[in-house]
Amino acid sequence: NAGVTQTPKFQVLKTGQSMTLQCAQDMNHNSMYWYRQDPGMGLRLIYYSASEGTTDKGEVPNGYNVSRLNKREFSLRLESAAPSQTSVYFCASRSENEKLFFGSGTQLSVL
Amino acid sequence: GQSLEQPSEVTAVEGAIVQINCTYQTSGFYGLSWYQQHDGGAPTFLSYNALDGLEETGRFSSFLSRSDSYGYLLLQELQMKDSASYFCAVRDRTAGNKLTFGGGTRVLVKP
Q1: In chain B, positions 66-105, which contact chain A (CB-CB < 8 Å)?
Q2: Which pLDDT belongs to residue B27?
Q3: Cis peptide before A8, with omega less than 30 degrees from 0?
Q4: Tell me: the pLDDT tens digits for B60-108?
Q5: Hey, are the CB atoms on B99 and A99 less than 8 Å from each other?
């Protein structure tokens, strides 16, 4: 039982490059989330998905797109990376008893 | 929208008790959660309150007052390993499964 698996762990991009962060959970959860965390700050919600086939914007969606490919997988795409998107990204899934389970995070630097 | 307020930092000595307050504003409160995050790690779930009152889990307890839009996390018998950031989070029933975090409280435990 791996929980929430998030890849890659580290990534360096040049401004304007694109990339996709992958996230998969094996706990059969309906709800999944993408957050970003800047140094010394809280977690800000980028996008979330209540169930397979649905996605909704969070607090800071600009510059990102998401895909809920199936119940297990929820990916985050940066189409044209900007230095302001340098951050640590966390994927999470939520259990029915309200626990969020987080992946180990992706440290992204945009030069 | 949703907003959560919590103190930015608290310092205490080993064996002491620390209370971290969280006030929130949300249009359709569903429940209040608490998470712990050590430096360089992912957040981990501590507790969840949907109803008024105190929930106790070992040395940690969490309290909720829905009428006051207020909750707190109580850390007892502080240990060095409790040095971490603590986040409150609310789920808003009017915004589906949107789950918003506060800015976090950094707890520093001194010998």
Answers
A1: 87, 89, 91, 95-104
A2: 82
A3: yes
A4: 999 999 999 999 999 999 999 999 999 999 988 777 778 899 999 999 9
A5: no
